[in-house]
């Protein structure tokens, strides 16, 4: 029997081979129809195109709200990690319900549901760029050649491109950022000047140190060679505490996303260096429609709680040291 998506989950059949295919979430054309629907609603909704992919697809941002505090949520940087666009479309539907008008008087929410539309079209981690060079991370070349060829968008978020390893090693060949998805998000951050940034990804199955199956992971920015500014680091930890508490209420198993010293071009690290709150949010990639619904509907309240406590100011009362309560991933 064929299983079909509904509502936020798209209209195409979900087959057994859907793990690396666009048919487990809305196609690009379906996504555009949904985003255009929000745009036609008028204030407090509006839509803008913040970039264009290598294959000519628009990278769109929906903004909703009237508040002076701006926040930015981004999904689907990696084309084979679909929960970002699914959960962010659900967020937009919920915000259109009229139940959260009080929040929107204080906060303006900006959402980029699918930062990497080309990779999403084929279920490919990177963007699609046949001219991308072979990987050489020591030279600043983070590319993917498995199942296709392209750049990893989540390594190129440099507000100042001259600080990137790629530019420093090959300034004549790469005088500008070669990754449209990263350029689009970087320019969106510059445009809206968000108080905080949430980067939503999908991950493989993981367990906690106690052996529990993880549903979601969170992590604040960690860098080895550059200190994260104090205010941005504290706000990032408060965001993690808020979402951890809220997810736990829904019996979700939350862990810390494994942290390494990392690379400053990774989105949640790059924007934290600008002294913003900045968090990476990972959901274990669902393998069925029911898991999609359950993971999305669990993540939604945590996003709304983050927006709501920003609007009320309660977020700033969270104890950042409580991130130590979040268990490590095994």
| DSSP E strands, number | 10
Please identify the top-level CATH class: Alpha Beta
How many helices in DSSP terms? 9
Question: From N to C, what is the helix and strand string?
Answer: HEEEHHEHEEHHEEHEHEH
Spatial extent as radius of gyration = 19 Å
Would you write up a description of this structure?
The chain has 9 helices and 10 strands. The protein has 330 residues and is α/β, with parallel strands linked by helices. A hairpin with a 5-residue loop joins strand 1 and strand 2 (58-65). Helix 2 (83-95) packs across helix 9 and helix 7 (230-249) packs across helix 9 (289-312).
Write the layout of secondary structure elements.
Blueprint: H1 28-40, E1 45-52, E2 58-65, E3 69-75, H2 83-95, H3 101-104, E4 107-112, H4 117-122, E5 143-144, E6 150-151, H5 165-169, H6 180-192, E7 196-203, E8 216-219, H7 230-249, E9 254-256, H8 267-272, E10 277-284, H9 289-312
Parallel strand pairs: 3-4, 3-7, 7-10, 8-9
Antiparallel strand pairs: 1-2, 2-4, 5-6, 8-10
Helix pairs in contact: 2-9, 7-9
GO molecular function: carboxypeptidase activity; metallopeptidase activity
Keywords: Carboxypeptidase, Hydrolase, Metalloprotease, Protease, Zinc
Protein name: M14 family zinc carboxypeptidase
In short:
This protein is an alpha/beta fold and 330 residues long. It has nine helices and ten strands. The chain has an eight-stranded mixed beta sheet with strand order 1-2-4-3-7-10-8-9. Strands 5-6 form a two-stranded antiparallel sheet.
Features:
330 residues, alpha/beta, Aminopeptidase, 8-stranded mixed beta sheet, two-stranded antiparallel ribbon, 9 helices, globular, disordered N terminus
């Amino acid at each position: 029997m064929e299983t079909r998506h509904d509502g936020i989950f798209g209209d195409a059949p979900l087959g057994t081979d859907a793990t690396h295919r666009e048919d487990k979430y809305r196609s690009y054309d379906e996504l555009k129809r949904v985003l255009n629907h929000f745009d036609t609603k008028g204030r407090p909704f509006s839509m803008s195109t913040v970039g264009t992919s290598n294959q000519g697809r628009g990278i769109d941002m929906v903004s909703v709200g009237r508040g002076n505090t701006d926040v930015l949520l981004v999904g689907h940087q990696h084309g084979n990690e679909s929960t970002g666009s699914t959960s962010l479309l659900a967020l937009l539907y919920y915000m259109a319900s009229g139940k959260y008008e009080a929040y929107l008087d204080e906060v303006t929410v900006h959402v980029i549901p699918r930062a990497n539309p080309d990779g999403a079209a084929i279920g490919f981690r990177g963007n699609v760029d046949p001219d991308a060079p072979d990987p050489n991370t020591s030279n600043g070349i983070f590319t993917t050649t498995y199942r296709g060829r392209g750049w990893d968008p989540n390594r190129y978020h440099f507000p100042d491109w001259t600080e990137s390893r790629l530019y420093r090693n090959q300034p004549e060949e790469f005088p500008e950022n070669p990754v449209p998805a990263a350029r689009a998000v970087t320019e969106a951050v510059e445009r809206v000047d968000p108080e905080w940034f949430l980067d939503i990804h999908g991950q493989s199955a993981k367990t906690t140190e106690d052996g529990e199956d993880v549903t979601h992971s969170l992590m604040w920015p960690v860098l080895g060679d550059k200190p994260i500014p104090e205010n941005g680091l504290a706000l990032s930890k408060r965001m993690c505490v808020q979402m951890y508490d809220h997810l736990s209420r829904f019996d979700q198993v939350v862990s810390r996303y494994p942290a390494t010293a990392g690379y400053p071009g990774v989105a949640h690290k790059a924007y934290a260096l600008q002294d913003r709150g900045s968090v990476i949010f990972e959901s274990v990639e669902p393998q069925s429609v029911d898991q999609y619904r359950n993971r999305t509907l669990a993540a939604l309240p945590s996003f709304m709680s983050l927006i709501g406590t920003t609007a009320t100011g309660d977020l700033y009362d969270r104890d950042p040291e409580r991130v130590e309560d979040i268990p490590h991933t095994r």
